[in-house]
Amino acid sequence: QVQLMESGGGLVQPGGSLRLSCTYSGRDFFINVVGWYRQAPGKERELVASIDRAGATVYVNSVLGRFTISRDNAKNTVFLQMNSLAPSDTAVYYCKTASWWGQGTQVTVSS
User: Are strands 34-39 and 67-72 parallel, antiparallel or unpaired?
Assistant: First the structure.
């Protein structure tokens, strides 16, 4: 069993920044790749970025150069630094590892 808890969402103006955190607990040896996903109203959930224990990262094209995923293995936390936010980034953001999901955190980009 693995538990994931997201935090850091909120309301931000276009061009602003937010930093999301995902803290995980449970059977640490199960946890290799951790991904951030998002789901906007009326749209399917999509992968935003992922990172493995060695630090290798993957990003969806739409966030390249704006979002950075990082990880602190000692603190069991994965971060998503989001810069130059646009209204199209508005969504519920979830973290996931293997078959376990967090509860999500809302990010709203609006003036």
Answer: unpaired
**CA–CA separation, 43 vs 18, rounded Å?**
22
Question: What are the pLDDT digits (tens) for 8-17?
Answer: 999 999 999 9
Quick one: which H or E segment has residue 82?
strand 77-82
Measure the CA–CA gap between 83 and 69, rounded to whole angstroms.
12
Distances, alpha carbon 34 to alpha carbons 26, 76, 110, in Å: 14, 11, 28
Q: pLDDT per residue over 34-67, tens digit each?
A: 999 999 999 999 999 999 999 999 999 999 999 9
Contact by Cβ (8 Å): 80, 91:
no
Q: Is 20 in a helix, a strand, or coil?
A: strand
